[in-house]
Amino acid sequence: MLKKYCFAFLLTFFCVVSFFSQENSIEYAKKITISDGLAHNGVTSVLKDSNGFLWVGTYEGINKYDGYKLVTFKNTIDKDILTSNRVRSITEDHKKNIWIGTDQGVTIYKSSQEKFIKLYSNKLIGKDNSGPIIRKVFINKKNNKIYCLTEGNGVFLFDEDYKLINRFDPKVNEPNNLKFYDVLELKDENLVFITSNGVYFFDTLKNSFKKILDKNINYATGITRVNESLFLINLEYGLGVVCYNAAKNEFTFKEQILSEKQLNNLSIDDNGDLWVGTLNKGILKINDIKKNLTCNSVKPFKIQYFNDGLDRLRISSIISAANNIWVGTFNKGLYQFDIKETPFKKYNRKMDYKYGIASNSITHFSNLDSQRVYITGVFGGISLFNTETELFEPLPFNIPENYLLSVSSVFVDSKKILG
């Protein structure tokens, strides 16, 4: 019964304000740009920390956001706090300190002291005046080891006391050109690295790399876990569906989806929906990816789109945090999307349902029985909606079409007589 009242309330509210949203579009809840205090409209990374603050990495420093106010931290003439203002990656360790990967190394923000400390850069160790470029900072939650993925310098390993303890590089012909983009931890604590040269399996006990899936993937930028045995890998075009057999430690490339689209990054939210950032065309969203995708089959899925009405919207990062998706862009700032599930659903004339509503401006509702409700609109017409099946039904009586559009209100009395 609650479901029926919720439906009726929502339909009344939305129809009175005459909503016209398309079924396959996505609406954002908030947009944050340089006009709101963002350090730069080029957003590279986003983190929601354990204290509830949002950290936003940009081309020109880093922001801390409490939901109301943006505070900017960056190098200026008077302050030198970051290894570089060009931030690439942000993550939080078990001590609640923030790791900031930049184009010139790593900076730590010590939360308890509210202090930035330059941890590592080539300039600090007297090796060079630039680098290393840190593309991603990944923390193993089980042993608190920190992996810093670089461009051309392999992977740096730090311990929980922030000491550099090792550096790893796979054997490739031109290691200086190898870019590490992403990493995923397996159940046995081994790692899968995503690089500009394809995919590498990393044995954390032997500290050794092994190239995998090389027949199908020679370039990738991201990876996400659908479940323990199914991964999606972001390719130059489309997504690779990869199955993993943990018992045999085998990876199998199953197929490629969205192969006509250039994609940048991907994330699965708490509702099981897949969000994919494109190179220039905004966001794609696929609902219930975990239900539609298995190692044995790929069911047809509907894609929702978002590009904010722009010709070019390049997505840099996507994170899921506390009923929200935060999407960073290279040119238009930061978007927030509300993913909280709701019992409410929208129906409008554009959806072209059989027996559907004739107008988006609704005037009256009247219950026919416990499941069905009559609906009339400002510009005439009457429809019958079943709240159980969530479908419009044919009217249980005949009325000439020329009279149908003259109906602007409806009432059903206690004897179920329509008036």
UniProtKB/TrEMBL annotation:
<keyword id="KW-0732">Signal</keyword>
<protein>
    <recommendedName>
        <fullName>Hybrid sensor histidine kinase/response regulator</fullName>
    </recommendedName>
</protein>
<dbReference type="Pfam" id="PF07494">
    <property type="entry name" value="Reg_prop"/>
</dbReference>
<dbReference type="InterPro" id="IPR015943">
    <property type="entry name" value="WD40/YVTN_repeat-like_dom_sf"/>
</dbReference>
<feature type="signal peptide">
    <location>
        <begin position="1"/>
        <end position="21"/>
    </location>
</feature>
<dbReference type="InterPro" id="IPR011110">
    <property type="entry name" value="Reg_prop"/>
</dbReference>
<dbReference type="InterPro" id="IPR011047">
    <property type="entry name" value="Quinoprotein_ADH-like_sf"/>
</dbReference>
